[in-house]
Write a structure and sequence with these properties.
The chain has 506 residues and is α/β, with parallel strands linked by helices. The protein has helices at 9-17, 22-33, 69-78, 80-83, 95-105, 125-131, 133-150, 172-191, 210-220, 227-233, 282-285, 287-295, 315-324, 364-372, 388-401, 440-443, 450-456, 475-492; strands at 56-58, 64-66, 92-94, 109-114, 201-206, 240-245, 247-249, 251-252, 274-276, 300-305, 328-334, 343-347, 353-357, 378-387, 404-411, 414-421, 434-438, 496-499, 502-505. The strands form six sheets. It has an eight-stranded mixed sheet with strand order 1-17-11-14-10-4-5-6. It has a three-stranded antiparallel sheet with strand order 8-16-15, with no helix packed on it. A two-stranded antiparallel ribbon has the order 2-3. Helix 5 (95-105) packs across helix 13, helix 6 runs antiparallel to helix 7 (133-150) and helix 12 (287-295) packs antiparallel against helix 15 (388-401). The radius of gyration is 23 Å and the shape is globular.
Length: 506
């Protein structure tokens, strides 16, 4: 069948007005119906990997790292400014040396975040109440205030944390951009001068939220959280690149047969359902920005979610990736009792590594059995570090081969299926990725719902009605650990000061 016949000229016009990439939608449909996509078999885990110091490096307390003469020589050829910061002793370098080498690499680094989501689920009462009804009752008044502020807006422009007095703090985007300025201030303290440019950022927004994101950025040019620090450095508040993720159509439900079509509901004036195609589309969408960055000398990039306050550039990780000359590296935190949804790192039958979802790729029972046997399970933090040259060389392959997952939906709008690509399944496509085993409470302070944001902020943590008694692994203990993690990040990573009970920019 002619692909164009599936969508009439008038339907195409209407869909494109809604921000739909019709050609991409039809390509996905073709690829599924011809067996090119959507039929990727599930990953069969072959156990969980051990921390070996080579492929998986424990970043929590390790003070020395192996450094061979060959690695140092190669680093010197590619990045002499970083190699000059390393002084190996008996085949090892210190964490402090790696951090300094990573600072030296910052002029060749760009920082990226996925900023495409609106805060609909984030502020959804049913989801938040379902997390813990007792905690919801304790937070209910503050929740309603924040939900009204956040609902339907890009999460990146909503408050990243609450002040100790309950007032709203800066937004996620302001915090991310401030962390880049703080790093350049550290660069100047270490090397005595500054490069001509600061660290650029790049982002993927969506058709539905880009206008609000751009409005927020315009306001941040004079933000008190950014302006004074930027002026001290002689930089603009930020420099960034934005690409917009298009929407795709929904497809017919599997109960309509093995061959799919574009979904239509004839009872609706607008018969289509249009959706984003998952954050894994970033490899397609961000190509232009990545090429621009490469052309101006950027050689390393990081990528992560906007709502994780623990996702900031780590110079030591950057230097270690360059020293080991690996294509990419990924943060994985040690699994805790509350990590019941998301991906874990596993060995695959072919000797590689991959990320599989708990409950889907591996059962909770099997994961529990591994933990009971003494295995340390690593939980995906949703952040990655890439050699940009390698990424550009492999983009076509990644775009084509990154698994496309179809899931059937049964909602008020009808029975349909949606297609999504998950960013972090790229781990399974990389030869010898470097895994950074990190502390969850320093590198993975993510908030998928508002209650997590309020817990991390320490809201009412000392209230006698706060659920739990603080024993290890319960909700109160988790909230305390999250809050301690935040209090560690705010002064060190974000350069904030606690004055008279409020965090402020210096």
């Amino acid at each position: 069948m002619d692909r164009k016949a599936l969508i009439s000229a008038e339907e195409r016009r209407i869909l494109e007005e809604q921000g739909v990439d019709v050609s991409l939608s039809l390509t996905i449909l073709d690829d599924f119906n011809t067996g090119k996509a959507g039929t990727t078999p599930p990953v069969i885990p072959d156990g969980v990997p051990e921390i070996d110091g080579e492929s998986i490096v424990d970043m929590r307390g390790t003070s020395e790292f192996d450094c061979s003469p060959e690695e140092l020589e190669r680093l010197g050829k590619n990045h002499p400014e970083a190699a000059a910061c390393l002084n190996p002793s008996k085949g090892t370098v210190t964490l402090k040396q790696l951090y300094r080498a990573g600072l030296a690499l910052l002029p060749r680094f760009a920082y990226g975040f996925l900023n495409g989501g609106s805060a609909t689920s984030y502020g959804d009462e049913k989801k938040n109440r379902g997390f813990n009804s007792e905690l919801f009752s304790l937070y209910e008044n503050e929740f309603r205030d924040l939900a009204d502020l956040s609902r339907g807006r890009p999460k990146g422009v909503t408050p990243a944390f609450l002040q100790p007095d309950g007032e709203k703090g800066p937004s996620y985007m302001e915090m991310k951009l401030r962390s880049l300025l703080v790093l350049m201030e550290k660069y100047r303290r270490e090397f005595g001068s500054l490069p001509s440019r600061g660290i650029p950022f790049f982002q993927m927004t969506s058709v539905s939220n880009n206008d609000d994101v751009q409005k927020g950025l315009k306001e941040y040019e004079t933000s008190p959280w950014l302006r004074a620090l930027a002026d001290r450095l002689g930089y603009p508040a930020f420099e960034g690149f934005t690409e917009i993720q298009p929407l795709i159509t929904a497809f017919t439900h599997s109960d309509r047969g093995s061959q799919k079509d574009v979904f239509r509901n004839p009872e609706k004036d607008f018969p289509f359902i249009v959706l984003p195609g998952g954050h894994g589309q970033c490899f397609r969408v961000l190509r232009k920005s990545w090429q621009k960055l490469y052309d101006r000398g950027v050689r390393f990039i990081s990528l992560g979610n906007i709502d994780n306050l623990g996702y900031t550039p780590d110079p030591a990780e950057l230097a270690l990736l360059a020293l080991r000359d690996r294509p990419a590296g990924f943060d994985e935190s040690f699994k805790t009792a509350v990590d019941v949804k998301g991906g874990i790192l596993v060995n695959t039958a072919d000797g590689g590594l991959n990320c599989v979802d708990l409950g889907v790729g591996i059962s909770h029972k099997d994961a529990d059995a591994l933990e009971a046997s003494g295995k340390k399970i690593l939980f995906n933090c949703g952040s990655g570090l890439f050699k940009l040259g390698w990424l550009l060389e492999n983009l076509d392959r990644i775009i084509q081969e990154l698994p496309l997952r179809f899931s059937d939906q049964n909602k008020d709008a009808g029975h349909y299926s949606q297609a999504e690509q998950v960013t972090w399944e790229v781990i399974g496509m990389i030869d010898k990725p470097l895994i950074f085993a990190v502390d969850k409470y320093k590198r993975f302070l993510a908030a998928k719902i508002l209650l997590e944001n309020m817990m991390t902020s320490g809201l009412k943590l000392d209230d006698e009605s706060f659920p739990g008694d603080g024993t290890e692994g319960d909700l109160k203990d988790t909230a305390r650990r999250l809050h301690e993690g935040l209090k560690g990040l705010l002064p060190d990573i974000y350069g904030l000061e606690l004055k008279e009970g409020r965090w402020s920019a210096s």
